[in-house]
Records
---
Amino acid sequence: MEDYFRVGVIANTHGIRGEVKVFPTTEDPQRFKGMKEIILDTGSEKKVLEVASARFFKNLVILKFKGIDSINDIEKYKGKDLLVTRENAIPLNEGEYYIADIIGATVVTEDGAQFGILKDVLTTGANDVYVVDHEGTEVLLPVIPDCVLARDMEQKIVTVHIMKGLM
């Protein structure tokens, strides 16, 4: 179970006063508006930063952190991830789950036979797609009711129906 969720990546600096352009990796970029603090993953450590302001520009979020007032203080963090803790993640509705929690799940067919291990989830415009390692081969399963029959998040088991043409 992941303790941190990535909500953005520092794409570049913005101006000379320590602001950064962030590419959001969250479903709801508006969440940056109410954010009080965020965790910067430097690679060697995780630093808690206090968010001073957030505004939007095209598909990016412009963030300003308290105590970082120069381009020189922030420039070294280009390409680094911005994280939130599980407690500060967007609350889930019933039947929803965090993608990080389903990675590694055992995938079984409707008759109970083990099919493979869920390795990744691709987010597409229409529906998500599960990437399943099946005997050393990647199989892409659309997350639609005809294909994904059930998810047991406690047991980490996904039950699927292998539709004609998927193999």
---
Amino acid sequence: MSRRIAPIAISCGEPAGIGPEVAAGAWAALEGAVPLFWIGDPRVLPSTLPVEVITDPSAAADVVHRALPVLALPFAGAPRPGLPDPRTAKGVIDAIARGVDLVRSGAASALCTAPIHKKALIDGAGFAYPGHTEYLSALAGGARAVMMLASDQLRVVPATIHIPLQDVPQALTPTVLRETIEITARGLRDQFAIKAPRIAVAGLNPHAGEGGKMGRQEVEWIAPLVAELAATGMDIVGPLPADTMFHAAARARYDAAIAMYHDQALIPIKTLDFDRGVNVTLGLPFIRTSPDHGTAFDIAGKGIANPSSMIEAIRLAARMAGMR
């Protein structure tokens, strides 16, 4: 695979977090099996890491066996592990945008993003997006994108993402849920090579509303929407009680679960596979993956960050690129 796809671009993420460490750990663990390059300021990478600055992504495949290929993007400021510096915000944002440009041009086959720290981006550059997903959607021209969390044990997609729980019932509309389901089904076919994806839809309320006694959304429009999509030939069931759809026997009956809000989706996957879960953005005109963890300022620079999720994110990006 390493010679058949363009290299994977890795954006630096928050330089004061564990992003540089897990990128270094992933490079070491993969041992050149996947062509990749890192975008950012080489100063923030571990000092013991062999690094080779490249000027073009096409050089990555030849370099990756002996050093981490780096497309250098100098940052302002001097961040230290655990201490974010708002002056680096523009550089962090530019690294993401540069990665998107390279993927869309074909110079890279996928983008893998290290975790960002939104407060530092807001303080330093007025970042106007709730998170990576929304920013990538804007870079793609406003394409409706959804966030999938994926591991070998579970794929789950929240229909609403970075909003307060009290706002979920208003944000969760039939249009939003329909688009989320359709984008998920298309992503499973096109990016995961699942010809006839099976989808399970969670309810919004406890016990999926229990026939309207614990909430009316399920009976009034979620169940009719699921039935409408099933009538088109989609293999879809729901709404199901969220507390009974994530055990092993239930997971065997679907390829992806649609959750109604952030924690309903992320709690099960982080419980099942905390270290190896991967964030995949569906609906974009390019492949994007990311480790399913944050900046972890408390352990940054201590050499103990687990690179497993970054490794899986890079491997999944390479597999998805190979399927295209």
---
Amino acid sequence: MIVLRRAVILLVTTAVASLVVFALLAVLPGDPAQVALGVNATPELLAKARHEFGTDRPLPVQYADWLGGLLSGDLGRSYVTGEPIAPRLLDRFEVTLWLVGTAMVIAALVAVPLGAFAAVRHRRTSGVLVSAASQLGAAVPGFLAGILLVEVFAVHLRLLPSGGWTPPNADFGAFLRGLVLPALSLGLVQAAVLTRYVRSAVLDVLRADYLRTARAKGLGPVRALVRHGLRNAAVPVVTVLGLQLATLLVGAVIIERVFVVPGLGSLLLDAVGTRDLVVVQDVVMLLVVAVLLVNFLVDVLYAVLDPKLRRA
């Protein structure tokens, strides 16, 4: 039942988001036809271009056509190049998924053990040092982390490329080398943030009555935590993971620029620069849907982790 409710909320929220995205871009000043043809275009050519773009029609009709295209997979054609948007968007989205997915894996692999370690040893020097390091890392912007990583691994050590992208089906080794630095730039900063939340969640579990009972029965702190505490500690951590995934999608816009990665962020910034509004609409809507889907999956995962939510 909870899945059905959340699915309905997802559909309604997506519909409202599409209306907001279209409305915000529709009220922006400027004429896409003028941008595409230049300042010396004649009124006849401008009128023809507006007709081809569909911008001479009423806004409700434009919205209905755009929404229908989204539902059918026809994302229209670029105002600037005239090429179909869908294939280009899917190629760029694949690149961003590789980057964000790898960064999320790095963040989880680093943060979960470090956060648990800092919680178990919170009264010892090692736990305090981990906590302090995570707090310091959370204050570092992703683009600054990227610049520092390039300085160390690309400029001085010359172990990895400073930028560029190779598709995995072209040269998998070059693909991995090009993926490491941008993924680390995103993942390590998010790992620092996530470590703090994991530490807090595990500390709450360690102070719970049922865990003290487990330890009183002879289980060690680590074994009691693994057997009885991690599932409860995972509930707030899943919330943060969902929020971080949304943050990574947005943060990838800057990182893709720093490392010259041809993902959605680069496509969005290029489209904004050339005022290719239909591309901007499609990219923003895709990012919005991705964030909403992540929130939906987090809600479903709640019900799996916490039986009380299923009963509620």
---
Amino acid sequence: MKHNQSLRTLVQRLVLLVAGVSVLSLANAQTAPLSLKEALQQALKNKSEAIKAKLDEENSQNKIEEARSRALPQINGTAGLTYNPILQLSAISGDLAGQPGKTLLIPFGQKWNGSASVNVSQTLFDKSVFTALKASKTTQQYYQLVSGLTDEQIIEKVATQYYQVLVQRQQLVVIDSNIATTTRVMNVIEGQFKNGLAKKIDLDRSKVNLSNLQAQRQQLNNAVQLQENTLKFYMGIPIETAISVPASALDSIEPKLAIMDNAPDVKKMSDYQVLKKQEELLVLQKEATTAGFYPSLSLSGSYGYSGLSKSFPVGSGSNWFDYASVGVNLKVPIFNGFSTRSKVRQADVEIRKLQADIKNTELGLNLAHQNAKTQLGNSIITLNNQKTNVALAEEVYTNSQNNYAQGLAPLTDLLDAENSLTTAQNNYTNALLDYRIAEIQLIKAQGNLKSLLN
């Protein structure tokens, strides 16, 4: 009994140990550093827009099969069984039965009628059928382009949001560093105050400055949480999932002037190609409508059995016979009240409207590229200026701290230098974000957003 209890205790401890290791492994996996490439891959895998676009692309093959089915033979089988409790009477002349001058009412048919047949039809010529087949293939290409465009839109959102989180976290690092520095200064002033070498107002001002920094940190921390939740939404992952954006990614941002030299071919960009494929579909739609002016030709055939009997038509008492037919059917449209003509004109108007959209989109894409180049150039200038400002602010703060320690400068100078350094650091991180966003916009304007996946 004691042996079984000891074994049970050992098993329970092993289970708890394995569970603990699993939980720790899961936690580590959730908080592993999240690179931009991984964030984009997660979004393209999980986001509903990407999933729906892929399903539309998959479903386009089914539409091709549906269009192709109209050009294949159509085979239908029918069967029926009818019971006539009262046969219909037909009037015939009595002369036929040797009763001149009389009208005789005679029932025709049998109480039971049965039939079974197979009908086959094959389209020989129908312009609308072949146009629909071409349109279905074009539709498949259209959904492929839409899927690619959807991926680019998701990449743009996730990449922009990723760097916003990155900058917010970098600002947290900056403010934590400032809090640590301010705390050290406050401790020095507090020691000087106790020794009668500093005024109480200097200590109070230092405490107020530290309190303001801590309040700013709390606000910034809340902002980081909101930005991370938005990033998770764009990635299509549960909000409760823990993510960790590595701060080192911000340091790797280096201005690149060479990217501005790449001139895009607007006609190869997804936005433009989607509209052009829509134009093809509208042209085919007009062609399918025009098919209403053309005759259609089809071949039909049927083969079946029919049975008549006074009783249920099964067995020797029933009379069954077969029949067959083959025919060619020609349908020639003559006049439908100008309905087809009106539909063709409507389709032509839709094409012209889309062509206006295509022209406007081409102008817009060229405008976006020029604006993105200008914005990136301005962002690089601002980034370099802010980087220089941070270096100067750090130098001023160091000198002010030394002067204050030696009694050569008042506390006001030190606090002003500290605030200036904080402002310069925040401006620099914001400039980094502006640069990265401008870079993403230029990459988008060049049609190379998917290069971020590499």
